Task: inverse folding
């Protein structure tokens, strides 16, 4: 038997990394700020994003969202109530979103392909505020089938949110080309979550603590949670929010708008 | 759920290794060596399990998967040097305690080399990929 050793030195995620780099260029060329929201299931990503989308739209920011789940388009329907264009990505068992899934859904979005849009998204697009996308007939709750009505282009967005599959492990390895990765944890999950999942929290650019309205009943140790986040990602910007009461949302929205204003500098 | 993640990694490994094999009928992989950073979010047990399953019926079937863990190395500004992190519970310089976000090593996820049996007589040699 003759054996030999072949050096490969090839990245296992090379394909994803290359595609993510292409996406990053595409986002930059379109002038859209892209965020990737990551947390455990049940942290409240969707409720947080619902409020974020509604309030940003009220401020005149053009927003849209891609939302990943194993199954169902429940989250897309919830988010669509904000009036922002939303697309659901069903991973059918895959525990994370990858760059290819994002690219595929952006492609569908940039050209009028009504058939690929979930009904909720079609309804959402009919509410899109930009004159470029305004439907000819502005009946807001009607499901639209006119292709023109669903045309959404990255270049007409200020911020695109990607809500990842609820999972604190796998998404950390998959670059989606985002500018800002946001790790969320809720007061009900325990202050040591960042210590348990350092691979994800260390890769985050911002952290959001959700469900602050439940801090007291949960005996949430705020100082400990902040310290733990800082242990894993020193100096990271941390937002303490409640999607229910709206507390802390203004600071988060101001941060987004500042990042948005600086995105092309 | 992490199992699915490791499975997709293994499928990518199989694809990459198969593409690197010489076009010799019967060429077979004996060993695949990986470099995996401790921040790469990869669980070795899941990886090994998935490897056994996903390599069946491929030239990698029955091969060993050897995982070399790569520790986290951060650059510490105040110390002006790279320092190895003893644990993932604190991303601060173990020498001076300064916060350290400048990651230099620890997220690797790559196939370093493969050992193949291509059935031809010859000496063990090291080849660069693609040559």
Result:
């Amino acid at each position: 038997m003759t054996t030999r050793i072949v050096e490969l030195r090839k990245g296992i995620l090379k394909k994803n990394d290359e595609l993510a780099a292409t996406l990053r260029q595409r986002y930059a060329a379109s002038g859209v700020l892209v965020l990737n929201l990551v947390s455990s299931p049940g942290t409240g990503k969707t409720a947080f994003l619902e409020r974020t989308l509604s309030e940003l739209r009220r401020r005149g920011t053009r927003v849209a969202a891609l939302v990943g789940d194993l199954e169902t388009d429940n989250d897309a329907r919830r988010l669509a109530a904000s009036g922002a264009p939303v697309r659901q990505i069903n991973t059918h068992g895959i525990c994370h979103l990858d760059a290819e899934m994002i690219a595929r859904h952006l492609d569908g979005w940039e050209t009028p392909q009504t058939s690929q849009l979930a009904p909720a998204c079609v309804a959402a697009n009919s509410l899109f505020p930009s004159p470029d996308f305004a439907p000819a007939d502005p009946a807001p709750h009607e499901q639209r089938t006119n292709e023109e009505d669903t045309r959404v282009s990255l270049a007409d967005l200020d911020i695109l949110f990607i809500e990842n599959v609820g999972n604190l492990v796998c998404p950390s390895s998959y670059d989606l080309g985002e500018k800002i990765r946001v790790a969320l944890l809720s007061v009900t999950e325990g202050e040591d979550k960042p210590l348990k999942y350092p691979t994800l929290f260390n890769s985050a650019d911002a952290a959001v603590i959700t469900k602050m309205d439940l801090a007291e009943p949960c005996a949430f140790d705020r100082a400990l949670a902040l310290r733990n986040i800082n242990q894993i990602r020193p100096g990271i910007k941390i937002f303490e929010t409640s999607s229910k009461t709206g507390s802390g949302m203004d600071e988060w929205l101001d941060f987004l708008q500042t990042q948005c204003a600086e995105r092309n500098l | 759920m992490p199992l699915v993640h490791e499975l997709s990694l293994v499928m990518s490994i199989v694809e990459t290794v198969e593409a690197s094999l010489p076009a010799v009928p019967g060429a077979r992989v004996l060993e695949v060596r990986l470099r995996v950073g401790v921040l790469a979010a990869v669980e070795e047990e899941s990886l090994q399990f998935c490897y056994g399953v996903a390599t069946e019926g491929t030239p990698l079937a029955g091969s060993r998967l050897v995982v070399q863990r790569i520790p986290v190395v951060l650059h510490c500004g105040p110390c002006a040097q790279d320092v190895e992190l003893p644990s993932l519970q604190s991303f601060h310089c173990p020498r001076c305690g300064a916060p350290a976000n400048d990651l230099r090593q620890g997220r690797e996820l790559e196939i370093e080399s493969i050992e193949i049996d291509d059935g031809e007589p010859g000496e063990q040699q090291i080849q660069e990929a693609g040559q």
In short: The two ends of chain B are 38 Å apart (CA to CA).
